[in-house]
């Protein structure tokens, strides 16, 4: 039997709200315990509500304080490892897509060139082929020359560093 979706919003009845809070808090603490056991990670929670006079700290005040102290003593660079902001993510994504596009264009050029060469070979006599085909071959060869120059330029701009 499937559960129906819960409509999110403040529960009007205070008694029902308190009961729901207690049940969901217990479920959350159970999930935190499972996460801690299954993944061998440090987990703590601070839960403050209008129903309790003081906040609940899980698993204990001492354990939570120890985790906070370890976090504070961790260097900022190590703490933020792997984090990037949206701008950096988007710049990396755009760069990768531009590289993919460039690779695909080069692949398409190569396939066009091979296709044209195959057509010319199929006709077996380049001199007797149509002038339109010869013009296609000229344009394609010009593109190949540009690609080769671009590859040479890229290769010359890359320098091998020896920091060993």
Automatic annotation (TrEMBL):
Gene3D superfamilies: Transcription factor, MADS-box. SUPFAM superfamilies: SRF-like. GO terms for biological process: positive regulation of transcription by RNA polymerase II. Residues 1-50 form the MADS-box domain. Transmembrane segments: none annotated. It holds the Pfam family SRF-TF. This is MADS-box domain-containing protein. It comes from Nepenthes gracilis (Slender pitcher plant).
């Amino acid at each position: 039997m499937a559960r129906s979706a819960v409509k999110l919003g403040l529960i009007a009845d205070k008694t029902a709200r308190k009961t729901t809070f207690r049940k969901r808090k217990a479920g959350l603490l159970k999930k935190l315990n499972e996460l801690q056991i299954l993944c061998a990670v440090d987990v703590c929670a601070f839960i403050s509500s209008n129903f309790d006079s003081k906040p609940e700290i899980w698993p204990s005040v001492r354990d939570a304080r120890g985790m906070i102290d370890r976090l504070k003593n961790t260097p900022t660079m190590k703490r933020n490892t792997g984090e990037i902001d949206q701008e950096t993510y988007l710049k990396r994504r755009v760069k990768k897509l531009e590289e993919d596009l460039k690779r695909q264009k080069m692949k398409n050029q190569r396939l066009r060139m091979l296709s044209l060469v195959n057509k010319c070979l199929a006709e077996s006599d380049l001199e007797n082929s149509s002038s339109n085909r010869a013009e296609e071959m000229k344009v394609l060869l010009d593109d190949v020359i540009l690609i080769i120059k671009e590859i040479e330029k890229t290769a010359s701009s890359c320098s091998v560093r020896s920091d060993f």
